[in-house]
Amino acid sequence: MELDSLYQEVILEHYKRPQNKGLLPNQTVQVHHVNTSCGDEITLNLKLTNGVISEISWDGVGCSISQASTSVVSELLKGKSSDAALSVIETFQAMLQSKGSDRGDESILEDGVAFAGVAKFPARVKCALLGWMATKDAISQSLALTGNNAKKEQK
Amino acid sequence: MNYFDVSAVQADFPILGRQIRGNNRLVYLDSGATSQKPNSVLDAERDFYTQHNAAAHRGAHQLAEEATELFESARERVAAFIGSKVDEVVFTKSATESINLVAYSFGNAEQGSRFHIEAGDRIVVSEMEHHANLIPWQELARRTGAELVWLSVSDDGRLDLTNAESIINSKTKVVALTHQSNVLGTINPVNEISKFARRVGAFFVLDACQSVPHYAVNVKELDVDFIAFSGHKMLGPTGVGVLWGRQELLDEMPPFLTGGSMIETVTMQSATYLPAPKRFEAGVPNMAQAVGLGAAIDYLNRIGLEKIHQHEVQLTKACLERLSQIPQLKIVGPSDMELRGGVVSFTLDGVHPHDLGQALDQYGIAVRTGHHCAWPLMKRFKVVATTRASFYLYNDLADVDALVSGVERARDYFLGR
Ligand SMILES: Cc1ncc(COP(=O)(O)O)c(C=O)c1O
């Protein structure tokens, strides 16, 4: 049944036991993202150490898709360089915007491929992207910030 | 009990014959967002385009005459429907535009005009407003420096009127309130609240989006100055809304949108404006849509609003009773039928409304999930979102059954695994 293609077991697992939920201190940046169509909100702390994401923690309220997807992204991108992380995010985004034709590359997206089915439900694509877009935003902001700091130090 | 032949009504709405997500019968419980359209409305629009299309109020040819005649006869129908004078009915594109019209017109009024608003004045709204009756006033307050104040909502989903007298104080220029909450179903005691506005000489704007389609609203019995509603929520087409205003006010108010059809005389430097309603209908109007709205009103009148209301009360009562028996479910809004319309919002412990709505959709049941364009109200009830079922004349008890068993099935799907 189609409902199961949307609500994969992996998604419900992450929903029930979300990873990295609960904000950790000492972040490089904190971002707050909102799904304007349904009111779901997340706050995400990201710590960038020498160009590598050393920590992602988050908190928020939302549907199973947005919560599970934030859990997945926080787990998947921890330990990756900012460049590698941004490229994974791009792969995930492409899968979700493919209307279902792109089933996702498991070697890159790992648990993230469970969200391939979401692409067939246009109203839910934003839910699945909420945590990923927040992470992307946090990475760009961190880079801008650490870039500026590096420049300052050079002076 | 049947107040009218519901299955005959259903047969008039072709979309109700659709199958959803496979071969599920469509159970449409989202009329609060927009209603479905009967054949007679679709036919009226089509007939306008195939037989009479021309720009109303312009040109002297036969089609222009017919288009004008049809457009104006739609206005007469609206006027009769709400008990007003014909010239008090302004066609807009939606309730949203109607409310903005009033807010911008007041904002355009110069010092000395009774509509002028400035720093030190007060605009009063409520915590249960749809964004359409909140943001235009926020913006007016921001532009003029006036203060925006609101009546709060109590736990049972009613307006808290205990301090209404101090909130609607002598500085108050406008009170803007919804007739019926699109989330809670609460019907507000309009005349009780307008007394406070009258005492201090404030204008009273009523958002009648959720009332006019469902029960008789007569502007002679309501002690208000303006009402706004949308055609698409009352069996009519999208793209047509109504602003009703007291004639002496409309005739004096500055225009909102300006351009063709609303002028009396024009020179290169200035213009004078026609009286209402023309003053507020710049440009070629939404003629086919207005004609469709006229046909929708004919349809509603044929069934009778009193019967429609009783029918909806019956469905809502059954829905409230049955849903309250689901242990994980909480109704957001009044739990009894006292001053309450056919809208039922609820939350289900452990299941987010978006997930619930998705599952219901899979069974063919269309409900609304989210913040319902009433974000502050969600915050007030400390919920992110709710699931909302809303009823209309084409719904029946089988739809209530489908909803209740759909909710139970969805609950087991998400919580049972
Ligand atoms: C109470 C209320 N006010 C205003 C509106 C806005 O109506 P429209 O979007 O047709 O302008 C709605 C519609 O959702 C409503 O329910």
What is the structure about, briefly put?
Chain A is of the alpha+beta class. Chain A contains six helices and three strands. The mean pLDDT of chain A is 92.
Would you give an account of this structure?
The complex is a heterodimer of chains A (155) and B (417). In chain A, strands 1-2-3 form a three-stranded antiparallel β-sheet, covered by helices on one side. In chain A, α4 packs antiparallel against α6. Chain A is of the alpha+beta class. The model of chain A has no long low-confidence stretch (mean pLDDT 92). Chain A is built from six helices and three strands. Chain A has one domain: Alpha-Beta Complex (Sufe protein. Chain: A), CATH 3.90.1010.10. In chain B, the strands form five sheets. Chain B has a seven-stranded mixed β-sheet with strand order 4-10-9-8-7-5-6, with helices on both faces. The interface between A and B is medium-sized, with 19 and 19 residues. The site of pyridoxal-5'-phosphate (PLP) has 15 residues of chain B, from α4. Pyridoxal-5'-phosphate binds next to α4 of chain B.
